[in-house]
What we know:
The protein is mostly helical and about 70 residues long. The protein is built from two helices and two strands.
Amino acid sequence: MLKKKEGFTNRFEENALRESALIISEETKNMYSHYVPHRIDTNTIILINPEKDKEEQVKNYLEKLNSNRYRY
């Protein structure tokens, strides 16, 4: 007897997951609409709030990035 494949078992489950992903994407689309992209270097772009201090936000991001690097 063959083992059952992991993942989707039928079209109904696949379509339900696709619909839930569409709903979540619509909800999150407007969450970041008021942020402005800011390029830190050639590979890094972050979203910053234009109403707050730009330098402070960049500094906070870089501190978090460095602390995450030290953990791994």
